[in-house]
Amino acid sequence: MEQLSSSWTYFYKVIFPRFWIGCFAIGTIALYVAAEFGDTEAAEMRGIFLFGLILGSAFIYWGLMRLKKVCLKNVSLIVSDFKEGIAVPLTSVERVSGSILISPELVWVHLRTPNKFGHKIIFMPKMRWSFGLTPHPIVARLRQEVDKAHGIAA
Q: What is the pTM of this model?
């Protein structure tokens, strides 16, 4: 069994979001409390911080909290959310796509039919040094594996 996702997946999925959202929420609450005590600078900044908290939390959910741990085993992907896992046959994969200009890099595995984790499996591949102008090489590799599982010559 070959692990396709980064060993940093748990950190980015669980630890970083809690830390970032928690710290930003505490800072936002502190500004609201300070504004109630007459701090005019805090009153001016609290709306900006609230907007940043909401926007940042949405981006963190979209890009990080939905990450899965993914391994390739024969003709299946073993997908886990760190609580439970499932096997996804490569024949049920419709397509594979990857991010560009996003850090950390992301890979999306689009499924023909939804499973326990939905229509799309998102994972963070092992980190590489690049400018992010092209999708991670694992995208091409997975596409080849999916084509092979479907009986399509590469």
A: 0.86
